[in-house]
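Hey,

The postdoc asked me to send both predictions to you directly instead of through the lab channel. I've kept everything plain text so nothing gets mangled by the mail client. Protein one:
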Amino acid sequence: MPQHNSNKTKNILVTGANGQLGLCIKALQSKYRDLRFVLTDYEDLDITDLDQVKAFFKMNNFDYCINCAAYTAVDKAETEKELAFKINMTGAKNLAVACKASEVVLIHISTDFVFDGNNTRPYKETDATNPLSVYGKTKLEGETAIQKLLKKYFIIRTSWLYSEYGNNFVKIMLRLAETRNEISVVSDQIGSPTYAGDLAEVILKIIHIQSEDYGIYHYSNKGKTSWFEFAKAIFEEAKKKIEVTPIKTEAYPTAAKRPNYSVLDTSKIKKSLKIEVPFWQSNITKAIK
């Protein structure tokens, strides 16, 4: 059996380290002196290749694996099913297999898209899942594979992730504001925009306090809004003069069906980690700057 560090420094593998969440974790590295990070992306570690994953784990003495690697092109997944499943399900399963063999705790990031959006109150971890899209299905199957293989895991479902990094709604809106003076945004899909930096802090806190409250958790920023209201808030913060018109989902057809309501109940993670969850508006400025 691999020997684990009983001394202070914990070795953390981060997959998908060039995505927005991975980059937010990277930005927090200096704050956590007791953690040593091995940041990998597709070029360094192909999570869909089990042999490569096993070998990588054998070479390194990890204590935790944070899986930020994911296929997240929601509409494209409808036609690229195989690739989406390969990354979101097989990749998650491969990491779980390696984590089990090396006694590593897996922290896996999932999504509000595992729900169908028919709820009228925030979704609890115990609510029935029913994904509407291929993306949602692949993420749910990834969760299931992890649960079958591991006892020591944290699956964190999050929603509407944005930050100063990567490609996200805030960045898209700011780009559009450069070339347009009016824009239409869907107003009948309700959720909680979540700053990736806040989620990164939560993940590192789990490791820092060495929590053993394993299981599924929901984490998103506080409050709820529509894409339309979110867009308005972004332009306000960025001091951009642009007219935003609300439209219904039907007026903006997409390849993948999205949940109309995907607000997550975060009371479990708040209680377990004793954290305060910031409001969704609180870090828009940070992401813009």
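Protein two:
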Amino acid sequence: MTKGKDSGTWNECKMQLETHGGKAENITEVCMDMSPAFIKGAKDNFPKASITFDKFHVIQAANEAVDEVRRTERKSCAELKDTRYMWLKNPENLTAAQQETMAKLKDCDLDTAKAYRMRLILQEIYRYPAAIAPMVLKDWIGWGLRCQLAPMVDVAKMLQNHYDGVVRWFSSKLTNGLLEGVNSLFQAAKRKARGYRSEKNIIAMVYVLAGKLNFALK
């Protein structure tokens, strides 16, 4: 662990690895979001590693795009009032009241509903076999570029620009899910302490929380 969010943090990671006997050329896979700084850092320091872009960040970007479409359309559509969280859920997770609201809006030809369907289909692609998923994703990107919903167009462009790393998931199956879960422990510790005096102190706390140390007295 090191401070900062720029490409230099990857150099720190490489130094830590090599200090403890590892070799950068032995790293063959990395998983991350689409931060340009992280992409550069990974390529510079671990040139033999294939990059997988975390699928949860892809779906998160699509969710944010759906919400942006909703916010824009809400200005001219009173029926969308108080529906924000409904569009962020999968159909099977909707409450009875939300299902009823969704059914009422089905015939309104809403841009929000179109964006929502696009998000669900993008999410479904991750369940496709690796042999056909990349081709289906290309079809989705083409749809997204033509859809005339600016936020969804942006998602399509993002996927187009990072296509290789996105489809890499279908062979690597790597995600950041475990790290995101561990990170929630760190954030809880930070809130409980109401901040730390220095980066050194919080890094020490992170190692205590995640190091699985046994403090039991014998």
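Summary for protein two, as requested: Residues 185-218 form one domain.

Thanks,
C.
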